[in-house]
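Aminopeptidase N: structure, please.
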Amino acid sequence: MRRAVLLAVALPALLVTGCAAKPPTTSPSANADAPTSPPTPTVPAVDYSPWQAGRSLPVADPIYPARGTDALDVLHYGLALDWSPSTSVLAGTATLRIRPTKDAASFSLDFMPYQVDTVTVDGATATGTVTKEKLTVSTAVTADKPITLVVGYHGKPVTTPMPSKRADTEPLGLTLTKDGSLWTMQEPFGALTWYPSNDQPSDKALYDIAVTVPAGWSAIASGTPAGQDGNTFRYQSVDPVATYLTTLAIGKYKQVTATGPHGIPLSYWYRPGTDDKILPWLKESPKYLTWLEKRFGPYPFPTAGAVIVPSESAMETQQMVTIGSGIAKMGREAFDADLLHEYTHQWFGNTVTPTSWRDLWLNEGWATYIQRLYEQEVYKFSDADLERSLREGDAQLRKKLGPPGSPRAANFAESNVYICPAAMLKELNDALGDEKFFALARDWVQDQKNTQQDRASFIAFVNKQTGKDFTKLIDTWLDSKSTPK
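Here you go.
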């Protein structure tokens, strides 16, 4: 996510309440008094091995425990979506390949109260009820026995509040604009606003997304472009993706293609007449990717690119960065820094994802420090200036927001989880020297590709790679109420 203003004064933390409860919507189910129905056809056994790359070890998130579940591991999402701007109705069929991790009489996923039209489990009709942003399916499941859930639904997209006081805070999830366009940013959650999901970072999955739109419109999603059939746009993710890193944008877009380092296909999506000024800035992407590859190894995915949306923020959505046009108002330098920051996340946050939101610092600390190193190289400020800037920011942010290792639920992704861990990485860099530090960073993202990690695994990796014990340094910077000496 884009870096918050460096020393912005944090407003008092406020509890964020959810949307008002809506009447539950229920899928059709069998009537016990109805005449006997014909027997359910036998459904052929499904081979789940093609989706094993989407296997995760989900955990209950300690910061947002109401989102996601550790009882399910979604291996694959197959999303077939149809958008009608004239009626503001999104119709979808979501096919989820799920590995239950526990025996249970029913199971639940995060989902907005769309009208649920059909629910089946392994081909058999099931009862699915949506209430309080949860879809509960009344079908028993067995640990490690995969199932196929298919949900048909339709309705008008509705966002969910973001638990933060950032200057660029906006509602989360699928956002409807006045002209009938759609766009989404959804960190720490919000995928639930357009498909049933295990909406937490510890459950990464594979994706196939197909979106049908009116003639003259385009649909852009995360993943690798997989072709276009008439007005249906297709995308596929063969590397696992956390739900917050998926994206969807629909509108009257135009595409520009390019090539990145060693032939990486790039796509830039913009709205003619609205984003023309920004397009040349996006075309600098190969420069940023080349700079990052030189330090952290090969770009981790098959394709890259960016889509411009009418937002004040930006997100590192996987393979297709989502950039808010509002950032351009801050000038070219700010836009360039944000774009570099989001591309950095493809390594630090996307291919290596935090297990829970307690370790958001693993994403933002790395991306912020790397961004500052890039700025130092471009604008020629000294190492002492960088040190002073990080420490001054750290001191103010710890006092206002607390240490980065214990983020507050009501202050998601505020500046303490950016600047404070960046200052810690500066100390680690100074202790190791550039050669060993960049070797450590490169090995971290390349050796842990497509995994979820946390503080303990990071410390263990640092200590093993360096042959020195940096536990105290890292823990002190993550937990201290004041800037460490």
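Notes: The two ends are 29 Å apart (CA to CA).
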